# Entry
Amino acid sequence: TQLLEQSPQFLSIQEGENLTVYCNSSSVFSSLQWYRQEPGEGPVLLVTVVTGGEVKKLKRLTFQFGDARKDSSLHITAAQPGDTGLYLCAGVGGGSNYKLTFGKGTLLTVNP
Amino acid sequence: KAGVTQTPRYLIKTRGQQVTLSCSPISGHRSVSWYQQTPGQGLQFLFEYFSETQRNKGNFPGRFSGRQFSNSRSEMNVSTLELGDSALYLCASSFGIGVHTEAFFGQGTRLTVV
# Structure
């Protein structure tokens, strides 16, 4: 069974601060996705990383896939209240199994 | 284009009853997956359908079942409801399957079992 551990589980910071969320597994994934979920809504895909060591930037968000494709991180620079939400990482299985395995999420609150 | 539509949005059922949830994927999408989301366990995979065939199934008891119709719409059924089945049930659709597949989620159905 493939498991993804996310840390921290909760994060409350002030506007303008930087933060990093981690997603770790003992399993290798074909790719890894990051989603953000707001209250009352379904998760929305932010990015997909596929290659070990890959780094993708989306404005103030930087996503990194570990060299061994077992872990990933999300770094937010100068957080804003609009970044508040539940951040979920999801690993895509290998072979012909493209099932998404989700971490339990990091609940981020950015205070003005 | 319209997003993923899940109905109903909210549902209250009594233990022992059964429930059917519906998901209409984005037009043209042939893959539909279902997830259960709870505060304690997070998002857990239930099953995935592609072109009316179940491709993957999660570790849930047989009380949870699903199907997909020829128009790609999907339903999931939970029989003999238990209190622990209270959760947000999310449906996601995608055009195909693969490592780059982008899943689009609906708003979910909030099921409360009393």
In short: The first strand of chain B starts at residue 5 and ends at 7.
